[in-house]
């Protein structure tokens, strides 16, 4: 024995815990239709891992949990356990008994256990598969399986035999391999497309690469000749330059004499400049001190304004809080009034309850009195009847008893009629009460659900209101902080704008001219801007750009030389000092040389200075002239490496302001932190204004957000109040319904008691009537005295009946009034309870309002204290009288210093005039020297052209080019060769410099993908071989298994039908793959010709299918098998054959047979009956075959 027993609790109709013990052989499960027999097979299938609710005859998995009946509640879970004997180690577990359990909760959660230890569904399925058991196999066979075998198409029927022969898993592997093959072929197709495209690219790229190689060879020859021509020319110009230099030295000597005189004049001039500079420094210091005082004043005013804003904010907050306290006070007053009204209602209701209670007690007393009178009348009637009967007791007067018997019979008949009416009335009343109770139960359930839902909504809405309050407070804090930030940013903006408008940081001459241009439109029209104002740069480049520009940052840009001339003449007329002007039309841009372009790729190189700044295209020449051929580098280490590598061929500036000049000098060190940053002014102002705009936008957003939150909070508060009202109303309604239900249940109990009593009395009257009828037949020929006694007894009985009817009607009326009073009392009690509940709620609400008001009053006191502190702080930051006097003194000093400066300017003008005279003399000498310089430059320009060519094309200087010098080189022939090489290079046309690399890259990719394509082709071949191998194994296994099943089928068919002929045949028609062949069933019962399955009777089809199932089981014996009414369609003779064969087969397999056929039951080793004594609830009983009737079977 393997399958020991099954335990079920709450599974479908098995509401109570049930147990079926399975022995060896056949265990039958019997019972009438609809009693729940098939639920046993469903339970076994469910534990084995069935996940389809449809297979278990339900719409959802929760349908397997007992759903309740009219008298039973539904269960919250179900549990089924299967017990297996594992002493022969059928399972790979070291236990003699294995228990597999599945548990399902109505919430949808499932639990699985193996020997009471938690497990996974996969663990259970794998454990069962170890011994060939599974929900999808032939462990459980129902009528559906039988029908599937006979009604399926041949190609569909094949799946049954594939599963039986064990190749279903191989088919899954084959299908997966075929999917892999399809994916591999798709990849191959994609690789072929890519390789074709690469092949199309390779041919032109190869031609381009060849042209590029020729170009490189020709360029190398050109470089050789150009460098040697340059060296040859460079070596021959030294003598010519020496002669010109001698003339220049003589002129320089004369210039030296004039320059000495000029130096003396310049010394005087510089002394005056120093004094002016000292005055400027003093003025600057005074202005800075005055500016600090002005900033202090503005800061004080800003601080005072900030304190005032805080005071205003707290005062408005206090006003809101006081209004809230007033609103709470009004709400509390309204609640107090409502409490008073409710207490008055309670007093009135209690008065009404007292009156109703008194009336109810009086009614109960009257009802008791009338019931007592009714009982006494009944006793008197019974006593009268007893006397009549006793008077007829004597045998001598027996013939006179006819009247008494007739009277008693009449009285009893009347009592029976009356009781029948009362029973009918009680039944009607009970039906009405049941209907009322069901309605009240439904209403209470609906109300409970509604109240629960409302409670959840109220909690959610309270959370929402609380969340809105918190968010509103956060927005208020954010608004306050934003106001403070805006005040500080506005003050900073005003300060920077003031400095910009007064041109702080510029030299005196530049500053004076720019200030004058603000008043003089003519000047303004001729000034395009200061260099520092036309250039924008990122903050990290500020120091580097200021260093690169140097004093040129304060140069003034003009449109042309006429404007510059006009401005210079204006400066002379106004003694405004000296300013450098940069006319856009005359300033020449710098051209980038090859060295600096190559240096851009060096480590630490950030870019060319003129490329790292932003400016209007109109100023291109100016910016290029000032910053062209200047490289910006990240640090001094990288700058040193670059300068050394390129022999100081261009200017280099680091981010920290270190300078490497083309003359070889290096400038660096610490910088003064107090120097103005002219380039950063506009950017700082833009950044501040951008921040202010952002803050103001944030302020607008916060205000809108606050308005939205307050609106949402108010709406949520209103909704919360509405929900609370609905909640209280529903609770009151629920209280009333429960009171009514209590009254109805009490009335129903009384009705049931009265109904049972009436039935008992009716049975007694029927017995008495039977006895009297018998006695009446015996004395029917009695005497006249008996007739007189009968008449007297009848009259007395009639009187008693009339009195009884009157009392009964009075009692019914009183009972109805009593019920009405009970309902009125219930309503009053419910109203009183609701009013007391409302009073408690309102009292708590008043206490909460009071508590909130006390908290708010404390907050008001705290905020008043804060306001006082803020007022004191505001007074502290006010400007004192001494500070105001000090500011006036500073302004006086500034005015005195300005006057001293004017005197010095006059001395400066005279010294400047003398300097001009000396300059004219020096100019004449300079012209002479210039003529010689031109001659010298002509030689240099010729050399420079070659040098620039060598530098730009090859990155070489004269010194570095010497390594390429060819001995005895002929420059004239070299120039001819250069022209020939250039013509040949031009004939090549356009060159793709990346062609060689591109060709190499594409070729490598082509080769790599070719290898990958070969791998895919090999993978395709391997998969095809694997599929072929699987097909061979599947075909071999299927053919072997199918032949055995066919042999078994032919033998078992004859045994079951008592002869005949049958076989299974593979249908290869229209099929390319033998593994797709369908399965035909040929069956010829005894005495019939070979015919189609559809012409067999239902029983013959069923028995044929059973023969196939037994054939499959013979091939793959199971430890146990559940058969669910598979013989239902068989007639008695065939059922007997089926049962005998099943008995024969049970020696190898343990069978659990669900049946209602007697032959099957007769051969069962044990029988269990499934009954439904209680409607909707199945129970199991052990039965004997002799106890089974035809009704039990059918």
> How much is the average pLDDT?
78
Number of strands: 24
Largest sheet: 6 strands, antiparallel
Coarse shape: flat
CA radius of gyration is 59 Å
- Structural class call reads alpha/beta
Please tally the helical runs, counting DSSP H or I stretches of 4 or more residues: 25
Beta strand %: 5-15%
Which spans of ≥5 residues are poorly predicted at pLDDT below 50?
388-404, 1189-1194
Specify the helix fraction band. Answer: 55-70%
Oligomer: single chain
Q: Strand sequence of the main sheet, in spatial order?
A: 2-1-4-5-6-7
End-to-end Cα distance, whole Å, is: 31 Å
Explained architecture:
The protein has 1194 residues and is of the alpha/beta class. It has 25 helices and 24 strands. A 6-stranded antiparallel beta sheet has the order 2-1-4-5-6-7. Strands 8-21-22-3-23-24 form a 6-stranded mixed beta sheet. Strands 13-15-16-17-18 form a 5-stranded mixed beta sheet, sandwiched between helices. Strand 23 and strand 24 (1177-1182) form a beta hairpin. Helix 4 crosses helix 21 (995-1057) and helix 6 packs antiparallel against helix 17 (784-876).
Summarize this structure briefly.
The chain is an alpha/beta fold and 1194 residues long. Helices cover 69% and strands 9% of the residues. A hairpin with a 2-residue loop joins strand 6 and strand 7.
Keywords:
1194 residues; 6-stranded mixed beta sheet; alpha/beta; flat
Topology, please?
Blueprint: E1 3-9, E2 18-21, E3 26-30, H1 38-47, E4 77-85, E5 97-105, E6 110-114, E7 117-119, H2 121-129, E8 140-142, H3 143-151, H4 154-165, H5 168-236, H6 238-391, H7 402-501, H8 508-519, H9 521-526, E9 529-530, H10 531-534, E10 536-537, H11 542-549, E11 556-558, H12 561-574, E12 581-583, H13 594-599, E13 605-608, E14 613-614, H14 620-627, E15 630-633, H15 636-645, E16 651-654, E17 659-660, E18 666-667, H16 680-778, H17 784-876, H18 881-954, H19 958-961, H20 971-987, H21 995-1057, E19 1061-1067, E20 1078-1084, H22 1098-1115, E21 1120-1124, H23 1132-1145, E22 1150-1154, H24 1158-1162, E23 1166-1174, E24 1177-1182, H25 1190-1193
Parallel strand pairs: 3-22, 3-23, 8-21, 11-12, 15-16, 21-22
Antiparallel strand pairs: 1-2, 1-4, 4-5, 5-6, 6-7, 9-11, 10-14, 13-15, 16-17, 17-18, 19-20, 23-24
């Amino acid at each position: 024995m393997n399958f020991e027993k099954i335990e079920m609790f709450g599974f479908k109709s098995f509401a109570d815990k049930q147990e079926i013990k399975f022995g060896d052989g056949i265990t039958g499960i019997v019972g009438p239709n609809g009693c729940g027999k098939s639920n046993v097979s469903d339970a076994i299938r469910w534990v084995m891992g069935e996940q389809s609710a449809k297979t278990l005859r339900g719409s959802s998995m929760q349908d397997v949990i007992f759903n309740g009946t009219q008298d039973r509640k539904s269960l919250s879970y179900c549990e089924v356990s299967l017990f297996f004997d594992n002493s022969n180690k059928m399972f790979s577990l070291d236990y003699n008994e294995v228990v597999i359990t599945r548990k399902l909760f109505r919430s949808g959660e499932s639990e699985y256990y193996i020997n009471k230890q938690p497990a996974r569904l996969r663990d259970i399925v794998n454990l069962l598969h170890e011994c060939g058991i599974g929900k999808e196999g032939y462990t459980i066979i129902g009528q559906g399986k039988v029908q599937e075998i006979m009604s399926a198409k041949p190609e569909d029927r094949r799946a049954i035999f594939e599963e039986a022969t064990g190749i279903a898993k191989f088919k899954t592997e084959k299908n997966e391999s075929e999917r892999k093959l399809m994916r591999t072929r798709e990849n191959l197709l994609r690789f072929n497309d890519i390789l074709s495209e690469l092949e199309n690219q390779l041919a032109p790229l190869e031609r381009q690469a060849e042209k590029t190689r020729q170009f490189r060879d020709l360029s190398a020859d050109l470089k050789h000749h150009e460098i040697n021509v340059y060296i040859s020319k460079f070596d021959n110009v030294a003598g010519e330059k020496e002669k010109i230099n001698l003339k220049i030295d003589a002129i320089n000597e004369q210039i030296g004499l004039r320059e000495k005189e000029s130096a003396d004049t310049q010394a005087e001039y510089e002394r005056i400049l120093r004094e002016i500079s000292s005055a400027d420094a003093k003025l600057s210091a005074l202005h800075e001190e005055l500016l600090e005082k002005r900033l202090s004043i503005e800061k004080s005013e800003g601080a005072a304004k900030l304190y005032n804003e805080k005071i205003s904010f707290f005062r408005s907050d206090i006003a809101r809080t006081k209004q809230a306290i007033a609103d709470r006070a009004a709400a509390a007053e309204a609640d107090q009034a409502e409490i008073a009204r409710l207490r008055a209602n309670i007093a009135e209701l209690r008065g009404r309850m007292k009156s109703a209670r008194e009336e109810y007690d009086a009614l109960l007393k009257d009802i008791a009195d009338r019931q007592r009178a009714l009982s006494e009348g009944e006793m008197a009637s019974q006593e009268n009847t007893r006397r009549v009967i006793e008077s007829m007791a004597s045998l001598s007067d027996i013939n006179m008893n006819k009247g008494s018997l007739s009277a008693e019979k009449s009285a009893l008949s009347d009592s029976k009629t009356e009781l029948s009416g009362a029973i009918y009335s009680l039944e009607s009343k009970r039906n009405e009460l049941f209907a009322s109770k069901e309605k009240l139960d439904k209403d209470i359930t609906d109300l409970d659900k509604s109240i629960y839902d409302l409670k959840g909504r109220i909690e959610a809405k309270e959370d929402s209101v609380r969340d809105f309050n918190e968010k509103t407070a956060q927005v208020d804090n954010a608004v306050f902080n934003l106001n403070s930030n805006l005040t500080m940013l506005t003050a900073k903006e005003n300060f920077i704008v003031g400095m910009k408008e007064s041109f702080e940081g510029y030299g005196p001459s530049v500053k004076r001219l720019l200030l004058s241009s603000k008043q003089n439109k003519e000047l303004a029209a001729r000034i395009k801007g200061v260099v520092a104002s036309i250039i924008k740069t990122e903050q990290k480049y500020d120091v580097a750009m200021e260093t690169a520009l140097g004093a040129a940052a304060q140069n003034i840009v003009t449109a042309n030389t006429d404007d510059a001339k006009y401005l210079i003449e204006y400066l002379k007329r106004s003694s405004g000092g000296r300013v450098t002007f940069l006319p856009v039309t005359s300033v020449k841009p710098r051209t980038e040389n090859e060295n600096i372009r190559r240096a851009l790729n060096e480590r630490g190189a950030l870019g060319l200075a003129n490329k790292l700044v932003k400016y209007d295209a109109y100023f291109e020449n100016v910016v290029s002239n000032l910053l062209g051929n200047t490289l910006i580098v990240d640090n001094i280490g990288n700058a040193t490496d670059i300068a050394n590598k390129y022999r100081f061929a261009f200017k280099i500036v680091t981010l920290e302001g270190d300078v490497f000049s083309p003359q070889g000098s290096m400038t660096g060190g610490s910088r003064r932190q107090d120097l103005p940053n002219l380039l950063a002014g506009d950017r700082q102002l833009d950044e501040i204004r951008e921040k202010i705009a952002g803050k103001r936008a944030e302020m607008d957003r916060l205000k809108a957000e606050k308005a939205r939150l307050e609106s949402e909070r108010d709406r949520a508060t209103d909704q919360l109040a509405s929900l609370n009202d609905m909640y209280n109303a529903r609770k009151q309604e629920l209280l009333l319904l429960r009171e009514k239900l209590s009254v109805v249940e009490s009335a129903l109990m009384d009705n049931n008691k009265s109904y049972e009593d009436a039935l008992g009395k009716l049975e007694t009257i029927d017995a008495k009537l039977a006895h009297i009828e018998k006695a009446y037949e015996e004395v029917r020929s009695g005497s006249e005295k008996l007739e007189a006694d009968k008449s007297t007894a009848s009259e007395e009985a009639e009187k008693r009946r009339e009195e009884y009817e009157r009392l009964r009607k009075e009692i019914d009326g009183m009972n109805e009034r009593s019920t009405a009073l009970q309902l009125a009392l219930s309503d009053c009690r419910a109203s009183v309870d609701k009013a007391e509940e409302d009073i408690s709620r309102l009292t708590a609400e008043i206490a909460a309002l009071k508590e909130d008001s006390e908290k708010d009053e404390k907050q008001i006191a705290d905020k008043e204290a804060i306001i006082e502190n803020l007022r004191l702080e505001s007074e502290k930051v006010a400007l004192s009288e001494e500070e105001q006097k000090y500011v006036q003194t500073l302004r006086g000093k500034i005015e005195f210093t300005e006057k001293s400066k004017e005197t010095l300017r006059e001395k400066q003008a005279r010294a400047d005039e003398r300097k001009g005279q000396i300059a004219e003399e020096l100019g004449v000498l300079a012209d002479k020297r210039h003529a010689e310089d031109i001659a010298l430059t002509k030689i240099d320009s010729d050399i420079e052209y070659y040098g620039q060519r060598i530098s730009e094309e090859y990155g070489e200087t004269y010194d570095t080019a010497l390594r390429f010098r060819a001995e005895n080189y002929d420059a004239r022939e070299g120039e001819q060769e250069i022209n020939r090489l250039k013509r040949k290079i031009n004939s090549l046309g356009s060159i793709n410099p990346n062609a060689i690399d591109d060709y190499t890259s594409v070729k490598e990719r082509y080769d790599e993908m070719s290898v990958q394509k070969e791998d895919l082709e090999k993978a395709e071949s391997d998969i095809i071989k694997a599929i072929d191998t699987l097909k061979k194994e599947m075909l071999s296994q299927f053919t072997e298994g199918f032949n055995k099943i066919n042999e078994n089928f032919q033998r078992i068919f004859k045994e079951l039908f008592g002869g005949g002929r049958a076989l299974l045949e593979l249908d290869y028609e229209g099929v390319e793959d033998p593994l797709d062949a369908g399965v035909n069933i040929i069956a010829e019962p005894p005495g019939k010709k070979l015919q189609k399955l559809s012409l067999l009777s239902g029983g013959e089809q069923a028995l044929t299918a059973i023969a196939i199932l037994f054939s499959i089981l013979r091939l793959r014996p199971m430890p146990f098998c559940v058969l669910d009414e598979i013989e239902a369609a068989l007639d008695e003779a065939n059922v007997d054959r089926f049962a005998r064969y099943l008995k024969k087969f049970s020696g190898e397999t343990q069978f659990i047979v669900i049946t209602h056929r007697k032959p099957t039951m007769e051969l069962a080793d044990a029988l269990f009956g499934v009954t439904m004594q209680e409607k909707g609830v199945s129970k199991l009983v052990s039965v004997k075959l002799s106890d089974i009737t035809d009704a039990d079977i059918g």
